[in-house]
Amino acid sequence: MGVRYTGRFAPSPTGLLHAGSLVAALASWLDARAHQGRWLVRIEDVDTPRCVPGADHRILEQLALCGLIPDEASLWQHQRSDAYQVALDALIDKGWAYPCGCSRKEIEAAQNQAVARHQAAVYPGTCRSGLNGKTARAWRLNVQAVQQALNLPALTAWTDRRLGAHTPKVRQNVSDAVGDFVLRRADSLWAYQLAVVVDDAAQGITHVVRGEDLADNTARQIVLQHALGLPTPQYLHTPLVLGANGEKLSKQNGAQALDLSNPLASLTAAAQALGLSAAPKGSIHQALQQWQHDWAKRWP
Fold it and tell me: What NCBIfam families would the database entry show (predicted)?
């Protein structure tokens, strides 16, 4: 018997759900239901200074109004520090993570020099061979050390269920495009990349359905999954909802919180953004059933 499908929606409580985040929530819910799987909600609140008090519970209420109910109690990342520390310690023990003493100003200066030399503006690995008298601020993954030790290719690629396997968005040379990325920040907060990889494994996530803007993170997460000996889920990155200025609709881009005085209307707009037809007049439950049927045919 195969591993049961488990999907998740993982909002950051830096504000309430907006039209773009409802699209991601609906897509992940539909994919889970179409595969007779479990659907979980994880509150990604590791970046605590940016979190809005009370937004986490309001997001859960917004989802409930739309008929999107998780199958298990939600998980909050701010409660998971011990698990992230265990993962970091494992990487340190293998010599695959190192302390970085560079300030933001020093990193920006090095990146500007790289741009002037027509090179990628990535972290140049300044502290990879030692702190050279600096005080440790952050922890970084030694990407090349992981790839060499595990015989991984320099180019990390995956097959995306929507984007396919042959577009630039599904392959990345992490060393060249990103460099040795942060696992724990200089302010002692856990980095998104480490937290999401550890939590996906802990929750048994088999399928990740999320916005296309997060495709750029996938290669880093796959490298980390290999480094920690964790499974790699299947990925499907959904189309983005754009704002009036043509940029991704987001809280940083002025996206307004959903007006859920008519949840079915909001859900219908989200479904149409996913290429699904408008539901016939009826209940939210009836609409979700129709979209689930349509989704199952489109994304088997």
Answer: PRK05710.1-2, PRK05710.1-3, PRK05710.1-4, queuosine_YadB
Distance separating alpha carbons of residues 216 and 218, to the nearest angstrom: 6
Q: Is 123 annotated as a binding residue?
A: yes
9 annotated as belonging to a binding site for a ligand: yes
Percentage of the chain modeled with pLDDT above 90: 78
Q: pLDDT value at position 252?
A: 54
192 labeled binding residue:
yes
Q: What is the pLDDT of residue 119?
A: 61
10 assigned ligand-binding residue: yes
Could you identify the residue written with the tokens 């090349």? 144
Backbone φ and ψ of 242, nearest 5°: -100, 145
Q: Is 250 annotated as a binding residue?
A: no
Helix (H, G, I), strand (E, B) or coil at 63: helix
Q: In sequence order, which ranges of the chain are alpha helices (DSSP H)? A: 19-34, 55-65, 81-93, 104-116, 143-149, 174-177, 192-202, 215-228, 263-273, 284-298
Asked whether the CA dihedral 64, 70, 72, 74 is positive or negative, the reply is negative
CA angle 112, 117, 119 (to 5 degrees): 80
127 is in an annotated binding site: yes
In angstroms, what CA-CA distances link 203 with 171, 196, 238?
Answer: 26, 10, 22
pLDDT tens by residue, 89-147: 999 999 999 999 998 888 888 777 766 675 666 888 899 999 988 899 999 999 999 99
